[in-house]
STAS domain-containing protein
Amino acid sequence: MSLIINNDDEDEFVEKQILNQLSQENYAPVRLRSFINHYGTVRPRISTINRLRNHFNKFFNTLNCLYIINVLFDRIPIIRCLKEYNLRKNLFADIMSGMTVAIMHIPQGMAYGMLTTLPPIHGLYVSFFPVLLYMIFGTCPHLSIGTIAVISLMTAQAISGTPLQSFNIINNQSYVASNIYDEIVINEKVGIATTLAFLVGLIQLILSFLRLGFLTVYLTEPFISGFTTGVAIHVFSAQLPFIFGIKSPRGIQGAFKLPRFYFKLIGSIIQNINWISTVIAFTSIIVLFTAKQLNDRYKSIIRVVIPSELILIIIGTLISHFTQIHTFHGVSVVGPIKQGLPSPTPPPLQQISYLIMPAATIAMVSLCISISMGKMFSRKHNYKVSSNQELLAYGISNVVSSFFQCYPSSGALTRSIVQEGSGCKTQLVGGFSCIVLGIVIVALTPLFYSLPMGCLAAIVIVNMKGLLFQIKDFFFYYRISFLECILWIVTFMTVILFEVDIGLYAGLCTSFLINTIRTQKPHFVVLGQIDDTEIYKNAKLFPVAHQYDNIKILRFDESLYACNSPFFKRKFYELIGIQLRQEPLISYKKQNLNKIENIKYNYVILDCSPFNFIDTVGVKLLIEIYNDLKKRNIQLYLSECRYGVRRTLELMNFYEKTAPNIIYITTHYAVMSIRTESDTNLPKVTIATQV
Amino acid sequence: MSLIINNDDEDEFVEKQILNQLSQENYAPVRLRSFINHYGTVRPRISTINRLRNHFNKFFNTLNCLYIINVLFDRIPIIRCLKEYNLRKNLFADIMSGMTVAIMHIPQGMAYGMLTTLPPIHGLYVSFFPVLLYMIFGTCPHLSIGTIAVISLMTAQAISGTPLQSFNIINNQSYVASNIYDEIVINEKVGIATTLAFLVGLIQLILSFLRLGFLTVYLTEPFISGFTTGVAIHVFSAQLPFIFGIKSPRGIQGAFKLPRFYFKLIGSIIQNINWISTVIAFTSIIVLFTAKQLNDRYKSIIRVVIPSELILIIIGTLISHFTQIHTFHGVSVVGPIKQGLPSPTPPPLQQISYLIMPAATIAMVSLCISISMGKMFSRKHNYKVSSNQELLAYGISNVVSSFFQCYPSSGALTRSIVQEGSGCKTQLVGGFSCIVLGIVIVALTPLFYSLPMGCLAAIVIVNMKGLLFQIKDFFFYYRISFLECILWIVTFMTVILFEVDIGLYAGLCTSFLINTIRTQKPHFVVLGQIDDTEIYKNAKLFPVAHQYDNIKILRFDESLYACNSPFFKRKFYELIGIQLRQEPLISYKKQNLNKIENIKYNYVILDCSPFNFIDTVGVKLLIEIYNDLKKRNIQLYLSECRYGVRRTLELMNFYEKTAPNIIYITTHYAVMSIRTESDTNLPKVTIATQV
């Protein structure tokens, strides 16, 4: 095929020549059908049974010893890691990184542990057991598993949502000493938390076995940002009572939880504020904040992360211990902490019915936070993180840890960044961190007796800074993408005004709805030719683009399917200037349809390049429009249909119901071919009228 | 710009010339940026405030007398209809059509009325009042409003789901005569049904005022088909007890309703079957069925619709009356019917809390059935049906009718087709039909005393035929579109196995999910040039398409956004042959990334023509890939980006983060430009190495 376009001046001779050539060749490779006959091949369709058989064959072929060993290596990545471990290169870096992270684990573990309404020691357990297990099964060396604010808060909510059976026991007894009562309640709460961890792990394992790791793609960035920001505000609010040294308002349930909480809190602060607590907490916040700022600024010079949180805890404990502010000024302190690692006890699983929904929510949230972080690090350091293997690792971590009085764990952003920054090389970092933590849990917990709760609250609040500042994401999305902004704000507001889990589901539903809404009213534009190139562009954006007298070229910037086909129809007729009747009374005459409306063109080309798929409703609409336009003496052509669309058209017998040659390969070929056609047609008409 | 491509033989000289020309012009109109500078215009962005101001100005300008009259005419279409009524042309046709439809209304009204578990007369009321009101406010002359099986069944379900207060009254009294008891219960049921109609109308009016008529686009064809088929099976099942002359099994609630219903029903049939009833019902079904078949076959000859249902009712009543089968053989008959039109009574609105959800469901179902029919007729006869005006008409019909002991009404398919076929011209058809029905209600109801219930059940069943046969839609969708098939079967199965309303919501959720799933794993293909044209096609489908040594051209057949960006990334690297590392241990070296993988090309072009939009996640991914490829000495180019995509890229500072000239106008220009570039680059390299 020869194709010459001379664009500098309209050389009519040359153009005629091409068109004639095209017509001589019977438009061979110009129309889709002939084009495919000429160049194409038919894709062999494999029947479903054969496809299944292939899958099974593949599966059985792999059942040999080597393969199984390989799978085992894939499932337990630490084997490969140990096998290939380079002592000289990695050991020192890993030990240093492990120590740094362990030093962060101690205060954070206690602070977040407190957030769950359990004794702080359980936070330390969560900093120990899941880390150890993730080291064995995880694939991302930079991810620091353990306590995290969001999950701790959600655990607290799950615990408060479960009715305690010990209330009944206590009510039945005539008199129970206050400390015994407290112990019974705390034991039961620990039981609930471990059951929760067990369920969370179980759900993650099931997801992993079903290979449903891909589901995390639905947890999109605006959604995660809105969700975590909302949760951060909850976490922040939960710390305020500790900051002001008062008791947390209780029994707030249902809608508008947070506003009502603040209402009660302010009243409580005015009545019972403990000034010493407040001063300690605010001093701690300011100190931590400055330390972090300094750390960030002089990172390049000192090259070591200052363990500001640990220093704060040590100083706080010392001051508190020697001034005895607990006894004399009623400042609440951590109090007695159990010593030693817990012996394995199965989670009680009694109140499982109350915990399934919270567990599902926690599993999903922990999943999306951890995996999104894992992916971030893998992008940065160019290694592969497998969603399904990660799921397996989280699942095993949670299930096994639940036997050691742990509540649900997850990957933590702040610690992971420190772990990465302190030069971690392999998963073994987790092991070295555990050694330090083990020593603390076994030997050093009594030292924390006098640590003021305000210090722990300060640590949480300062760590929330990044998440709270995500509010600026809202303005980012507002500027760039209206629908993503809607998703952000809906998720954020439902998290704030209702429970965390309601926010999760509302956000998910919104993100599905948005995918539909986005395709509702796409651009529908009239195209024009740019100079004499084969490029056709939106005539509104490119004023140079010229339109032919008798050809209208349209492009609908979205796949045509059920939800936008009414819009397509309305807009299509609007653009080609045909008004669908308003008055049902005027009788319908076929002949003079277009005379009324003064339509001057006879051809409409629909550029189908934006059609990524078409459904049955869309095909029916195209057939309907084709036939309607035919009545009005207008010919509809399509161009640039891709394989998927063509296949649906074929299955729907589109060509039989319209015309076999309705599709052109490109818009430009369609225009050229139409121009030849009308050139050859027009003279005939004039002759006919002359006779 | 001059562009000459000679394709018959590879004339190198000519090709070089073009490429040189392009390079001389500094690729001016080839790259997007220069193209826009050369030809384009910047679309003026109107600020939100100005846009709102424009809207308000437009609104206030319209507040004049003429406009208000016009709006009134639009809202009450019958005024225009009467003004322009052509007595000679339309009157006779309208009267004949009105009579025909009225004759259908009588048996159907009673049969569907029976389906609601109310006395059959209420079905006749529904055939009268809403029809009258729709005549005034409706826009579709061919639509026959009134009783319809689906809505009647849903009304019955709403009634059975509402606890009756009269049970309490009766339980408190020591002894109540059976007929008084029945009357109290029926009165309360009527109250519930009218409250339901009132609520349905109210919801439709609210939707109309909020101009939410467009929401019906979400009720897509596969969904409606699956839903109505499922409901038809419910309706069919509800008739079976009448067919076999037994009492309907009661108290079946919850999951797997229909299977459990059939289980009980079969037991009941075996025990209590009334043979006379069964014979009457089956004879009626066969007679009706044959009559309809004959009618269809000889439609062209006799040109009148035989009122077979009315004839059946008359004959059935006569036989039943003279043989007294009710008294002697226990065949259940219609019994005493109130005479005369009801006086206006406000609906009781007492049990409104139980009825809001069913009312919302009924409002949506009635809406989607009626509007889809209206659209069908408007397409056929080329007039416009406005969703919002229709909603107003249905709303007013239901609200006002609810004062006259009517249950919710809707447009009926079978009657509408008869109305169209019998030559209806204008809305006035409704009025003529009402005259006939008025006479029947006022004077003739006592005549139906002896009508066997089996005859009415037969009428319902024969009318369900079309809906039940929609099951073949499933096979249609199975063949053509997997996802639409899934939607159909999910909707159908949930309707059958659970309640009708659960099915509705499950179907809606599925249809939203499907829109997301569809975009998950699109085709991602490598393109090749066809001969020497500017056409680039999937190299797998077109084996002729040839790929250049150092250029990879890719096309991702879907918009790139959060939910498919992980797939995009994985597949992208797979297609260009780069393996993302599995082992986290090997240290990352920038220099020899590609040497390991033997990558031979230096350019990747991503054809963006299928991108209908891109979101922030997608843009970030493109930036990430661009920078990653740059490290590997591969240059990424985009081509054919449309306005929406370009705008998001600009807002995200895409050009600053990658390269200002990353986008080419077309894939072909990109290829040409790259070939010139590499031609000019390569010699330099050789010289450098020679030195």
